[in-house]
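Practice problem. Given the sequence and the SMILES for zinc ion, write out the predicted structure.
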Amino acid sequence: MTDTRIGLTRQAARNVIAKYGIKGPPVGVDRIAASEGLEVRLMNSWSSSVSGLLLREEKLIGLNAQHNRRRRRFSLAHELGHWFMRHDFPWHDEEVTIDNPPAMEEGGKPPEEGEADEFAGELLAPRAFLKDVMKRTKDAAELADLFDISEEALWVRILRHKLL
Ligand SMILES: [Zn+2]
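Answer key:
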């Protein structure tokens, strides 16, 4: 991803934070989805390799019920990235439905996936919130609890923003 794309992606996430008047962590991604008119459905039938799916026309987001809650929050934020950044996917041949999500791509992922991940990270832990909270604590477990994200996702944000 180019620096320009990273900047635009982070800005898109911060615009959503501003739009919904969110002042600090944890970011209510469920509320954002509901406010956008998106239904979120937990799917028990999916293989564990599928995390989430956005069906734009149906205004429906599926999340894998087998994954833990923090992972589902990240997946929801990722699908919201596709939603807000208006990503569209060329699913020509496959019949993609909520019960038949696309299989994981072998090899290279399309650039939209990296963008949606960056959006998700910035939506769940915006740089300004992270900087502010890190004045009080730098304990990773405590920070992960405050933002309600995995420690792994937290570390990605801290390192990408060079906050250590
Ligand atoms: Zn995606």
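Check your answer against the key. The chain is about 50% helix and 10% strand.
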